[in-house]
Amino acid sequence: MAETMLIRDIPKDERPRERLSMFGADALRNAELIAILLRTGTKGLSALTIADQIINKFQTLDSLSRATIEELCKVKGVGRDKAIALKSAFTLARRMAREVRSDAPLLDSPERIAELLREENRTYEVEHFQVVLLNTRRRLLRIEPISQGTLDTLLVHPREVFKCAINAGAASIALVHNHPSGDPTPSEADIKVTRDLIRAGQLLKIEVVDHIIFGKANSERQRDYVSLRELGYFYS
User: Is the pLDDT of residue 60 over 50?
Assistant: First the structure.
């Protein structure tokens, strides 16, 4: 039977639970918060040591949130139960972000649209195309998933996009999808789909206000998304 090491077995000043109680959760490193989720160590390793290994392997919380249970289990000391606990924590975080939608937020800028959809889109491993349905005051009605996979006119058809908009009584819509590669630069297919949907919306009197494409921020690109309206693709 593998030796189990409890948090009480490590020096008191390194105990994440005690530190959280004394200083608050914001004072803890990511590894310390992960150690609390792991609860116990194993194989002669403390929970904090295992948590440090997890951070070292995945580098960022974004990468960690994308990891499968099988990938997590490859970290020494992480069994299936610990991997499931981590996946559960990230799933709860995404669901918490979705609850913001119930407040009918004002979505009158690319920044506000991106803020609402960022948490959900950053974990997708394939392209997901979504439509944000808005009322006459640009407040959220609901978000409809349309397709996933490679973006093209076969997967994103105006009929499916505007069917949900008409059923919801939407006055306008915003288009959102992600690029798993991390580069949000629009492809030719992205631009064609956007312009096709703009024309269809004009016929139906439902304005397409923007198309947000998510990627990842880096040293050359401060924002993790682009707005096709800002890039000029909404103008002839």
Answer: yes
Asked if 62 and 25 touch (Cβ cutoff 8 Å), the reply is no
Mean pLDDT of 41-48: 84
Determine the length of the chain.
236
151 in Cβ contact with 185 (< 8 Å): no
- Cβ atoms of residues 110 and 228 within 8 Å: no
Give the C-alpha separation, 229 to 66, whole Å: 29
Residue 154 phi/psi, 5-degree rounding, is: -75, -35
Distance between CA atoms of 220 and 194, rounded to whole angstroms?
26
Nearest-angstrom CA–CA distance, 207 and 171: 7
Burial-class residue 137 by CB neighbours within 10 Å (0-12, 13-18, 19+).
Answer: exposed
Topology classification of domain 104-227? Cytidine Deaminase; domain 2 (3.40.140)
3-state secondary structure of 131: strand
What pLDDT score was predicted for residue 6? 55
What dotted CATH number matches 7-97? 1.10.150.20
Instruction: Measure the CA–CA gap between 108 and 105, rounded to whole angstroms.
Output: 9
Burial of 77 from C-beta contacts in 10 A (0-12 / 13-18 / 19+): buried
Residue 31 CA to residue 42 CA, distance in Å, equals 16
Domain boundaries, the chain: 7-97, 104-227
CB atoms within 10 A of CB 232: 7
Say how many C-beta atoms besides its own lie within 10 A of residue 141's C-beta: 19
User: What residue type is assigned to position 177 of the chain?
Assistant: H
pLDDT of 172 > 60? The answer is yes
Instruction: Give me 179's structure tokens.
Output: 């690029």
